[in-house]
Amino acid sequence: MNSNISIRDYSDFVDAVTSNPSKDVDVFVERILELSQSGVNIPRLMTGANGICSEAGEFMEIVKKILFQGKPLNEDNVFHMKRELGDIMFYWINACIALNLDPMAVVQENFNKLSARYPDGFSITRSENRAVGDI
């Protein structure tokens, strides 16, 4: 592998490995219309996915500033984190609605998955060496 890759070469590489729906609005719209036939509310799913990531970033920004930049861990900042967690929940519920999932069924599935992974509580070994199918 060439260790002296130019930014132009890297740009060409990125373009070559990027999907057509990511690069072409017409192909993207065609894909959205195709997926809309699935019974999943694609605009709501996109809203949920984008919102979860955006709000998680806002939550992490507060945590980062507390941990690494001297921001105080005080009542105001805990309240700010509480509000960001509420925003994450808002978008999480949107994603559940988009996928026709009962939010409590999602919570139950997560409980079942983690209970099977960690039957005796957290374990580094079980965290790093998962059973087949444990995603």
Word description of this protein:
The protein has 135 residues and is an all-alpha fold. It has a domain at 43-123: Helix Hairpins. Helices cover 71% and strands 0% of the residues. The chain has helices at residues 7-16, 20-23, 25-35, 42-68, 75-98, 103-117, 124-128. Helix 4 packs antiparallel against helix 5.
Structural class call reads mainly alpha
- Helix-strand pattern: HHHHHHH
If helices are DSSP runs of H or I spanning 4 or more residues, what is the number of helices?
Answer: 7
* CATH fold naming of the domain at 43-123: Helix Hairpins
Based on the coordinates given, report the CATH architecture of the domain at 43-123: Orthogonal Bundle
Shape: extended
Low-confidence residue ranges:
none
In CATH, what is the class of the domain at 43-123? Mainly Alpha
* End-to-end gap: 32 Å
Percent helix range: over 70%
Q: List how many beta strands DSSP finds.
A: 0
Q: Which labels suit this protein?
A:
0% strand, mainly alpha, 135 residues, single chain, Helix Hairpins, 71% helix
What can be said about this structure in brief?
With 135 residues, the chain is mainly α. The chain is built from 7 helices and no strands. The protein has helices spanning 7-16, 20-23, 25-35, 42-68, 75-98, 103-117, 124-128.
Mind sketching the topology for me?
Blueprint: H1 7-16, H2 20-23, H3 25-35, H4 42-68, H5 75-98, H6 103-117, H7 124-128
Helix pairs in contact: 4-5
